[in-house]
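Two proteins follow. First one:
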Amino acid sequence: MNAWTTVLPTWIGPLRIVIDGSGRLCEVRLPGDTGSVDAVESEEKCAHVTQQLGDYFAGTRQGFDLDLWYQGTAFQMAVWEGLVDIPFGASISYRELASRVGRPKAVRAVGGANGRNPIPIVVPCHRVIGASGELGGYSGGVAIKRALLEFEGALVNPGLFGR
């Protein structure tokens, strides 16, 4: 697969962006992810993604209009597709997301699928929290999750979310 990559500096730290040969976003690597990427550096090829993510971090974009490519199990794909429906400024519980994907008893599995999301922020797994309002985990660390939720205004009264 032909792929291109670039690094986008943001206020949460540098994001590594990876797109495929068709220009579809494949990965967003959060700060601290030191894994290697099999892709060629190209700011130009990744510009459509870095523009939208840059606008998000500048507070001028609340949603994304990008072609995405990811693969996983049927369950993971259903969870990731369900994440895209959570609007900016909102959060839901893991239990609510499990219900939305038709597997109401698969709360832990939803958490596992969330943790394997290859396109965080664009596929907003940070918007899923515990029913009690606790944040749960995040591949970039809970501090980044909290910062993103606060930035979006989703932590005004976290004890009420997801109920």
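Second one, unrelated to the first:
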Amino acid sequence: MIKIFTQTDLIRYLYHETTEDETREIDNALICDSELQSLYTELCSMKNNMDRAKVEPSSRAVLNILSYAKSELEKRTSRQT
């Protein structure tokens, strides 16, 4: 029986979220199905691009967030008293 794999299946496979049986089935399907190989290659490329695009927030941004959170907390505690 030939199983049809979806884009979601390939994404799960790409992130190692498939079961052993699913992994084995997808491995075999990638060997035989050039369209599936093409989609998988495209997904790998997208994942690599997203991984490279990760950026750390600046220390200024972190300080702004912490300052905002502190002021909100102070507002809430002052309203309760």
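SUMMARY FIELD: Residues 22 and 47 are 20 Å apart (CA to CA). The chain is about 80% helix and 0% strand.
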